[in-house]
Amino acid sequence: xxxxxxxxxxxxxxxxxxxxxxxxxxxxxxxxxxxxxxxxxxxxxxxxxxxxxxxxxxxxxxxxxxxxxxxxxxxxxxxxxxxxxxxxxxxxxxxxxxxxxxxxxxxxxxxxxxxxxxxxxxxxxxxxxxxxxxxxxxxxxxxxxxxxxxxxxxxxxxxxxxxxxxxxxxxxxxxxxxxxxxxxxxxxxxxxxxxxxxxxxxxxxxxxxxxxxxxxxxxxxxxxxxxxxxxxxxxxxxxxxxxxxxxxxxxxxxxxxxxxxxxxxxxxxxxxxxxxxxxxxxxxxxxxxxxxxxxxxxxxxxxxxxxxxxxxxxxxxxxxxxxxxxxxxxxxxxxxxxxxxxxxxxxxxxxxxxxxxxxxxxxxxxxxxxxxxxxxxxxxxxxxxxxxxxxxxxxxxxxxxxxxxxxxxxxxxxxxxxxxxxxxxxxxxxxxxxxxxxxxxxxxxxxxxxxxxxxxxxxxxxxxxxxxxxxxxxxxxxxxxxxxxxxxxxxxxxxxxxxxxxxxxxxxxxxxxxxxxxxxxxxxxxxxxxxxxxxxxxxxxxxxxxxxxxxxxxxxxxxxxxxxxxxxxxxxxxxxxxxxxxxxxxxxxxxxxxxxxxxxxxxxxxxxxxxxxxxxxxxxxxxxxxxxxxxxxxxxxxxxxxxxxxxxxxxxxxxxxxxxxxxxxxxxxxxxxxxxxxxxxxxxxxxxxxxxxxxxxxxxxxxxxxxxxxxxxxxxxxxxxxxxxxxxxxxxxxxxxxxxxxxxxxxxxxxxxxxxxxxxxxxxxxxxxxxxxxxxxxxxxxxxxxxxxxxxxxxxxxxxxxxxxxxxxxxxxxxxxxxxxxxxxxxxxxxxxxxxxxxxxxxxxxxxxxxxxxxxxxxxxxxxxxxxxxxxxxxxxxxxxxxxxxxxxxxxxxxxxxxxxxxxxxxxxxxxxxxxxxxxxxxxxxxxxxxxxxxxxxxxxxxxxxxxx
Amino acid sequence: xxxxxxxxxxxxxxxxxxxxxxxxxxxxxxxxxxxxxxxxxxxxxxxxxxxxxxxxxxxxxxxxxxxxxxxxxxxxxxxxxxxxxxxxxxxxxxxxxxxxxxxxxxxxxxxxxxxxxxxxxxxxxxxxxxxxxxxxxxxxxxxxxxxxxxxxxxxxxxxxxxxxxxxxxxxxxxxxxxxxxxxxxxxxxxxxxxxxxxxxxxxxxxxxxxxxxxxxxxxxxxxxxxxxxxxxxxxxxxxxxxxxxxxxxxxxxxxxxxxxxxxxxxxxxxxxxxxxxxxxxxxxxxxxxxxxxxxxxxxxxxxxxxxxxxxxxxxxxxxxxxxxxxxxxxxxxxxxxxxxxxxxxxxxxxxxxxxxxxxxxxxxxxxxxxxxxxxxxxxxxxxxxxxxxxxxxxxxxxxxxxxxxxxxxxxxxxxxxxxxxxxxxxxxxxxxxxxxxxxxxxxxxxxxxxxxxxxxxxxxxxxxxxxxxxxxxxxxxxxxxxxxxxxxxxxxxxxxxxxxxxxxxxxxxxxxxxxxxxxxxxxxxxxxxxxxxxxxxxxxxxxxxxxxxxxxxxxxxxxxxxxxxxxxxxxxxxxxxxxxxxxxxxxxxxxxxxxxxxxxxxxxxxxxxxxxxxxxxxxxxxxxxxxxxxxxxxxxxxxxxxxxxxxxxxxxxxxxxxxxxxxxxxxxxxxxxxxxxxx
Lengths: 949, 679
Description:
The complex is a heterodimer. By secondary structure, chain A is α+β, with helices and mostly antiparallel strands. Helices cover 54% and strands 9% of the residues of chain A.
């Protein structure tokens, strides 16, 4: 309970401090704070010694003697004003005008003498309160505005577009003071006589002057300038150019239906054939769904020679394939050895499994079908699986571990895994004993064992892939367009339910593809067939996932088995098959493996991420993955020899292999690679390469244009052109683009996703949960434990003492543990309060026993008590003791005299008093914590509230 | 266009359709009107020639004919609309031909439910075009029914909204109309139109609002409380005044808010006024704006800041306003400046900016008005204004040679500046401003101008003003006495005031001259004036005339009888205590003179009145009466004992003794002094 409420109430307090920071940031949204931080307070370094700072470096006071001009002192803000602000503004409130009110407010460059008021020196500008004059880099001022004194709020603003500075007084605009300002100015104030105190507001709190309206004016001005920018437009060329840009973009990314519609409506034509676009689209689909193996094969098939000429690209794809294998989404695990480009595309390439069927059948029936299909007992499967695998020792050990599982479901997986292993071995060594484990549902008629196994395994993994893929995508989309996801999910099943009964016989396609082994004929036929099927699909749905499925659709039983194994992958824990294999992979990872091994036991329970397992959880798949990894490494070495060293490739490979070092790669530091978003760059480079090979531009002109513009904006901000603050490409462009996209193409969410953009989000709730669960909750338990002593008879001295002392010791350990993880700070953390209170409670429980024991002892010594004859001393002592507990006693609503029944009464009182006060403390603590943190800025290391004194 | 050219070439052709226009066959007529429509659209010359040919009469006839087809009438209205959009003269000719009554009549006969019908729309458009030309005399008093139907028409289609708003904006001129408009639900309509997304509707709606609010407290307070869509009208106006709105919209909204403020609906310290409106107007005065915007903004700003000292102070420090206004004085518009096309200024200044050669004058006038408002109350601001470069020269030249509006602005500015003693003695003296001022006073027959000028003259005639003597030499007395005979009460007041100022501690000859030129009969006339202020100032004048001993005797010798008559007149009349106090003070002054005393002593009536006032429960009157008595019995003067005896007989001594019990210290002192004089 404590943990739950703690998490709930503690999560918001972190935001106010962030929001307070953001109040400044939100004024200037276009400023890149990593490059050009915004001034947020006065600099404690960049000031003259007569200046004192307080209140988070926002209040400035004078502490010199202030006799004459030589005693002037000024202070600059921490950072210069970034040009990307467009319009920068800060306000200074005169808290006290001091003796003479010689205050100057203004701007100055870095390095201007701080022993002067702003405005007196070169590159320094100021407005002075004593005479209301403005000083523009000279000792003599010009009459500018009114004087200002205690209580006035003076604002200073820079319009970075026109490069002018203006002031405001109490919210009234005073007019332009300086023009032609240099760049990189700092907000500056200068004071000269004792007692002068000013407060600055850099945007942390609302301004007196309405700066927002001025910004809006500038924004509309800039926008107007852009919109009315003269374009040399003769005979509508401009218009057609824009059309062309859009159309090339659509073609480039393979939105072929949209492109067609657009071309029709704007009377354009595009250079590429429609089929070619569709082919590219298909490949992109494969890559984006993580089916890298198929994608590579399709590329081989459709664009022969492309990857051969571009080894680096091939390598990139392979590495990605490896990652997808780890992810459990790749289908090509079986054909591990077939990476050589000369090899013709084989059976599985044009025939990915039918996701729709899986989709339709999986889920509920999975368990039953599993039960029916898992006939072979685990031990036999293990023994059959062991021999064919090439590296016997590791494999056998892995299967022996599998035997530990008693689940029926696991056995099914074993079979398939073993079969798959056989397939893998066959790929490497010539198809030894793969026959020993034919999966029951597959008809072994025309194809050999290897093919059958392939199909099955493919089905298995793809289903996982598919599911995962959808899972991810669902989430992605959910982030991007909150309105569409339901459509996306609900829209699929109906369509598939119309198509699922797969008419073609399962063997037909594998047979045809295996027969047409020669590369040229097969590629042409398959491409044509796939394109035709895709086009037919395109007409009704544009999803295209189904375009290949009928060919591969296995028998219903096979699908059922696949579904079963698929569900296995989700249901069962994955364990240590990995580690033995690892040794051959990369020696440097050994230590980590050890660590992982240890963690494995607890990890299974604590993971809770939905049971995502490496390679979908299948041990054989892992084996194949490792095998593939070796090949990739080999390829990298070959590449190194041929093309020289490439840091990029090396890094890529290292990152990919690092995944193996973690038990749960998804949550590891290199886990980002498994994010489906990471497929997009690969997809793009592949797409670009294909287009390049056809002498088409690598990137669509529209993207280039946008990139140019974006670059231009950064350049503008760097070179001090303020207009960039009000011309946001991203916002306008993306918004409109998305809108038009959605209008043009109702199912664009199932098309290729937009360029990866994901807002950075820091999830603080993790820390909260961590603290609540690891610290708070145990301490609550310990405290409750200590109350057990109230129910134990006072006679049982050893039991009660032990209980109390143990609780105290545990508390102390907990406390020291908790402080160890947190940075040492001088103030009292709220966590400390929590811990100390808990400890006091435990201690009080022990103390209570002492009293009880004392009373009990006396009572047993004294004659049987009758209330009137109670010894006075005892009575008084007790009276005092119980006076502490009075509230509890009172709430008990028992009269004082009646209540007095001796030691058990104290225990009984404590049973109510302790829990009551303790839980009210717990509640109060979290309420207080929430309230206390709203004012605080910046939580401490543990993310807990800070109680300020 | 093509048609127009063709028509011009082929006179015969044009004859044909004009002839057909008079045909009784409605089909032929329709044909002709259609051709006419195409001929006039877009061609100013064609419009002129058609109007010259007197076709309008026939068109109106068609409109009026009840039996004719509505389609034909719509076509005719279209033609009339097109004609009205031509030059202002064309519109004037249409009005002359009696277009307006016909249109109103037709509109009235339109079913009010059929707002959307093309005919109604066209009628409204036609009316709008006429009114926008600024030459239509507003309907003297609106027909209530017509007005409410007009407002009903104004709700639905945006084109109607625009037309109705324009018509109302241009037609609403008098207080009565404003009231009628609000009673008919005009305020709700305007609030609704302000929320329209179409700027073509918002802008006339703003103008309409402005016209309704102008100088009308009741209407303004009603409008300020109206709201639409949950936002009060002033807030809607602030929204329209935002900096990213079109400039003319900002200006119109600021004007509307200004008028609301001046009519008392919004106070000066309302942030919407002191922050938003003021800043908006000052911003509009900037150099980078169009000339017409700057002039309009400055005029509005002058109006906004005319009264409130707070607003004057704020405006004076906002955005270098005083400097900006200085630009107005120096600004020379480029000679080939073109007339802005399609600007939508408020109906008040309609057609004012058509001639670029008048722009500098307009700007000078506007700037002087702003200066006048800024310097009205605050001496600091006045000094800053005075220091502006060419201001005094501009004022002097504008006074002598400029159009009346600019002269007026110059005099206003001078009036503001003359409120400063320092300026009176220095700058105004240096620039000899009284000379052109006197010229203006003597030559002009513009009453407002003369009023302001004479009030300025009042200030210039104050006794510490160095120009007093020179002005006197210029025959000011004669002129001012002439002014007292003017029918305009303001003028009379200013004249008497000036004379009073002039007579204060003046030489004897001046006083004589005043009395001579004014004449006792005129004094009587002034004393019987209905305006209390004039009465007071006249009494003040008498008091100033009868000030030092010598002067009192001399004047009383000549005019004693009349003066005593006048005083009795006042004392017997139904006047307020202040007036009677003045009269008693005059008596006291008279009693100060040696010979003049007899005038009072010999008049039992007056003495009884004095005693009467001593017992009246009004301390001020009692003081004045006692003061008069004590002057009469002043014992160093000869004949004092005699007077004392007489008064004692009348029971004055007793009265005085009774008054010793008073609690008022002022009265007590006077009574004590008087008692001491009694032997």
